[in-house]
């Protein structure tokens, strides 16, 4: 009787390893996807924040040229501090008597967070964000 119970338990030996071998690729794929997309969403939020803050920083300018320069200076100086090194060529600043608009196009292909993106369904390569701030006339 004891040997029959030992045989039954012996048959189950190794089944956990087989189950892990079947499930682990799916779990790893999901984990890599969470890391990549979490990093991408963090970058998208950082680019939006940078656009908004640079639009706010440009409000101190007296004319459109000075507002544009203030926004560009803010993006170039603060972008690397928050992990988004945006060059001035990827920033468009426009203003009139009512609003200041800052558009940022950031290419994420060379960002360190996106190293693992080839292991999962990759997110978009470009993050395009815009911020508009009113000059007055509320």
Name some characteristics of this structure.
alpha+beta; 138 residues; 3-stranded antiparallel beta sheet; 3 strands; 49% helix
Structure description:
This protein is α+β, with helices and mostly antiparallel strands. The protein has helices at 2-11, 15-57, 64-78; strands spanning 91-95, 99-107, 126-134. The protein has a three-stranded antiparallel sheet, covered by helices on one side. Strand 1 (91-95) and strand 2 form a beta hairpin. The longest helix is centred in the N-terminal third of the chain and has 43 residues, at 15-57. The chain is rod-shaped, with a radius of gyration of 26 Å. The model has no long low-confidence stretch (mean pLDDT 88).
The secondary-structure class comes to alpha+beta
Order of helices and strands: HHHEEE
Q: What strand order characterises the main sheet?
A: 1-2-3
Q: Roughly what fraction of the amino acids lie in strands?
A: 15-25%
| Percentage of residues in helical conformation | 40-55%
Distance between the termini: 89 Å
Overall pLDDT: 88
- Shape, principal axes of CA atoms: rod-shaped
Count of DSSP E strands?
3
The number of helical elements comes to: 3
Low-pLDDT windows of residues? none
Radius of gyration: 26 Å
Major sheet details = 3 strands, antiparallel
């Amino acid at each position: 009787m004891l040997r029959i119970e030992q045989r039954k338990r012996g048959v189950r030996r190794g089944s956990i390893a087989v189950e892990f071998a079947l499930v682990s690729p799916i779990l790893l794929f999901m984990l890599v996807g969470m890391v990549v997309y979490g990093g991408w969403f963090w970058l998208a939020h950082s680019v939006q924040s940078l656009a908004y803050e640079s639009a706010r920083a440009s409000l101190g300018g007296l004319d459109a040229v000075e507002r544009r320069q203030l926004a560009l200076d803010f993006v170039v100086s603060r972008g690397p501090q928050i992990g988004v090194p945006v060059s001035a060529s990827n920033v468009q600043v426009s203003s009139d008597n009512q609003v200041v608009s800052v558009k940022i196009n950031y290419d994420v292909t060379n960002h360190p967070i996106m190293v693992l993106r080839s292991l999962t369904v990759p997110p978009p390569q470009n993050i395009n964000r815009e911020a508009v701030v009113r000059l007055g006339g509320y």
